[in-house]
What does this fold into?
Amino acid sequence: MPTKSGPDSQVFLERVRSFFLRRLPLRPDYEERPEQLEMALDVARALAEEELLVVEAGTGTGKSLAYLIPCLLWSFEHGQPVIISTRTLNLQQQLLEKDIPLLRQLLDQPFRATAARGWSNYVCLRRLDSQQNSQQLTPELAQEAGELAEILSLGASGVRQKLPVSDALWSLVQADSHACNRQLCPHYQECYLFRERREMERSELIIANHSLVMADVALRANGAQGILPKPACWVLDEGHHLEEVANDHLGRSLSLADLQRLRQNVFDPKGKVNDAGWLPLLRDRLSKADQRARLLECLDRGLLVSLPGFYQVGEEFFYGLTQSILAAGLTEVGARATLNSDFFHTPEGEECRRLSEQWAAHLEHVESGARDLHRLLTDLELEATQGGLVELQSLIERVKTLRANLEFCLFPDSGDWVYWAVATTNNATLGATPLDVGERLAAEFFAPARSMVLTSATLAVGKDLDFYEKRVGLDHHQNRVARRLLDSPFDYRQNAYLGVATDLMDPNRADFWERSSQALLWLLQQLGGRTFLLTTSYSSLRLARDRLAPALAQLGIRVLAQGQAPPGLLLEEFRRDSRSLLIGADSFWEGVDVVGDDLSCILITRLPFRVPNDPLVQAHCRRLEEDGLSSFRHYQLPQAILRFRQGFGRLIRSQKDRGMVLVLDSRLYHKAYGAEFLGALPACNRRAGRLAGLVQDAIKWLKGFDS
Ligand code: SF4
It folds into this structure.
């Protein structure tokens, strides 16, 4: 409901409309898109009338310009930045490299648009300086540090993505909020991070990502200084990811990887780079200072001697945690296990607690050692150790956080949190996630915002946005929420074929591939690859790869399977040579764009219901059941419909695209809820039948279209 409607708001809307009708047609590749104008006017109204706008805009609406233009015009008028946040780097790059340069051409007025990044993306000049002066680096790292300093002195950006730097050196020189003395740092004026922060304050548009935005919310909630300027207005594109990112950042966790990073940064007694880290460097400085005996005694006794034991017991804890959750049969490698108080009464759980208590004692010891040294250095006011003081403060904060999170996550006594652990082949993580992240978003994110636009191509279940609004906490602000559903301008009736196999069930069943392989191989041969196969788990991904790859190789069709290379590289490979079948699980269901004939078919092996034994899924379902609601209807089904829409959405990415989606799960046909999945898709050519006949019909349709 609009809250501040008035003449000013109408004037602003007219200004936005005029831009779309007069300026936008000056683009050489201009296409009239009524949905785009409609969305732009909604965004303008949200800005002017202080609304929280939820807008689903189908593929092809041109939604980035639909929000960028009103945001920019609003910022010109009010002299305040608008923060635009995306989930993926791809979209962030598209905004910075394509849409914003286009806007510069269309506008008479210059403007600033700045990319916002987290601390660890910037080089810290103080740390680089210390490392270069330390004479503690290996010759290779010393040379690399010298080259980095040289490149920076020639005017390179201090952002990691644009610098040729190894992981080993970066861990020693990256910026860290706890290890920064800000205005007191001698490099403050030329510091890359703070230069960009100052630039951000003067910008009209700030291009951020959801992780950074949620990290900012978490910092402010803890009373700390935020990362982003305190803005009035926000746009969250790819807004369907908000709940998941908020879960990651508003929860608490600690991992073996955190411990390993700390070791690499502070002092690694066993590492490849002997003596790497700032602690030996500090020791070197102190060995030349007055009162060195007292200082070295404090440093050696409090830290240098105790750190190796601290790492070892920490590693034993994570190793024990892994063994315990696997031995207790709570989960398998790579999947999250619920940790509840029952688990801690089993022998495995008790062992886990025992190890955690041992590690907590080491954490306490290291923290107190770091505090003693910090106090002593502060009292002695040794100028040469200013950098050391900041690093010590950072160590104290990191160890304190590890200890607090360890204690919090291992005492699962609040019904408002979900406690979990996960082990992969080289990491183990212990965590706790708030059960109702929406409540926190409502209070800490939506309430202080002057206006907010949340947009994506998939937010609605059917034509209903309620599910999304509840999940992210917008239901707490009903009087400020405005809604809009905009269909895709693409012609699905003409260009898309949806086939449902009526004779197949679960791809994890032994006979699934025996019954489907022949028809699928024939289909892929006819298409010459050009197909994505989407699975709902890694086990069915592996099964599909093992069953199809040998026969496809004989047909000259490659199989690219998620996990064999990073997803971005796999996608590049597919685009380079589309005589391929790309098999993907989670990340390929969305955000993946292959335009044109290179992608003509999407195979969906199973309806994408979430894994029922995931701790968060279990906890949400349990809470709904306790409230007398069906968890299937109110949680699992809407989640799966949204995912299904995302998978279907990979097919048609431009006006000219055409192709088929074949669903190999007959529940879509036989079950009553199948109609709700189908009802959520745009109208297109739909068929159902046995797979063998279906693939022939689909190819006939495609060829008929071709001729
Ligand atoms: S201001 Fe902070 S981040 Fe920047 S160089 Fe100094 S210590 Fe590093």
